[in-house]
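All the exercises in this workshop are built on plain-text protein records. An example says more than a description, so a record of this kind follows:
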Amino acid sequence: QLVESGGGSVQAGGSLRLSCRYNHRGNCMGWFRQAPGKERERIAAMDGFGRPEYANSVKGRFTVTRDKDPNALYLQMNSLKTGDTAMYYCAVRLNSGCPLNWEDFHAWGQGTQVTVS
C-alpha cells in the first residue's frame, strides 16, 4: 500500500513537498504525474542503490529523497510552473530495473493533486 500526501495549490515559483509512505520498499520507487488529456509520465525515481533519476522537464527543480524513515519517499518541488499542474503518484517496482513506463511498476498510490497558478 502506498499513500501520497502534500499536494495542494501554489503560485508559480513556489514550492511543495510530496510524501509517499509505503509498507514495502521495492527495488525502484518512482514519482509519476498525469495531467488531464496527457499520458502518465515518470518524473523522478530512486533505484535500490539510492540513486535518483529525473525527467528533463523537472531536472534542477525537483529532488527525490529518502530520509531515515525506511518507509517514506519524498519529492521536493521548487520553482513550480503552471505546466507542473497534474495528479502526482508514487509507485513501487519489485523487480530489478527502474523503468520509465508506469505499466512496469507493481503498485500505486491514490495520487495527490498539485495545482500551480
Notes: The radius of gyration is 13 Å. The mean pLDDT is 94. The chain has no helices and eleven strands. The first strand starts at residue 2 and ends at 5.
